[in-house]
Amino acid sequence: MTDAHDTAADTSLRTTGGAPPDDGGSSATEAPIPLLEPREGIPPVVADPAALAEVVAAFAAGSGPVAVDAERASGYRYGQRAYLVQLRREGAGTALIDPVACGDLSELGAVLAGTEWVLHAATQDLPCLREIGMVPTSLFDTELAGRLAGFPRVGLGAMVENVLGFSLEKGHSAVDWSTRPLPEPWLRYAALDVELLVDLRDALEKELERQGKLEWARQEFDAIASAPPAEPRKDPWRRTSGMHKVRRRRQLAVVRELWQTRDRIAQRRDVSPGKVLSDAAIVEAALALPSNVHALAALSGFGHRVGRRQLEQWQAAVDRAKALPEAELPQQGQPVTGPPPPRAWAEKDPAAAARLSAAKAGVSALAERLNLPQENLITPDTVRRVCWEPPKAVDADAVAAALAGHGARAWQVELVTPVLVAALSA
Questions:
Q1: Tens digit of pLDDT for each residue in 87-101?
Q2: Is 21's pLDDT higher than 80?
Q3: Quick check: 87 and 194 in contact, CB under 8 A?
């Protein structure tokens, strides 16, 4: 074990020991120690059933929480699948697993059932882990813990530096993790991402307990672990960047046709949709409504590097949209299921606007007093919904029931109910 890892074993040397520093810097005076090598070296990548079986056995025999991370190839490949999974547990060491070569990792997930998983920004990794059969029953999210503890910077590198006193090299976070074989510097980076994750968890647990927020964190972690998979997004083409420029329904139909054509091609080729056709090009074609391939080729994004065959497939999508009957054109905007945008409240319902203003001020003051982000104290959407349609009886029980009905956790209900009762009664 290196001197750096000896230091890491005593996390009290660099934990905050008090409120997190306001400037996000380390609370200790000494410079952070660069973390350059995993303590047992870079493990070989697990890429066959025999090696995976050894990892399963080792992690089943390990003890304590298991640090888990996953690397995706966002911006390079279609979808958000995992291309590398990293784990570390006391008694088992670190494992780097190629989920593409190994396929289903449900056996590994099964032996870790009942074990607390330690992740950083868990909601980013859980969907791709679920796809390969790994679903935690309990977890500790070090990013969320940092938010609740009041740290102004909660990226993994910042947290490891501020809490434990080590600096992590973060130069490979946005590389193409579908590359095979993975270069050694990338594997070193991946192994180091889980090297101190359990140490960070332990230090943050102490800090949350010191601040009286540990139970809040536990409720948040339980909510993440028990949340069902997200529903597929309705009309995902509407999230095309630059959509605010598209005003007419016929133009919306062009966006939809081009987006759907691009998505099919990207999925077939397993590449990021943006590498097939940019959002800017889709919007440009929708605004111009080109009548033929020559007009399309003159538009930005459809220049000389786009072949004739590709131009023809994009023009065919435009032509399909232009040929749609009026009744099949998409409507402007999406059906609103909740309150209108807050900017419209003053005109639509001045009393509701006044309630919202008072509620936002109260929530902001409470969040500042508790030293945590407003959105972690209570989601802005929940506040808007309660203010737009308040309970008939504005009392603590009714407001608490309304908050719980919108998904607020017990600790949030307890803290926010008095604030909203006051705002709704004003």
A1: 999 999 999 999 999
A2: no
A3: yes
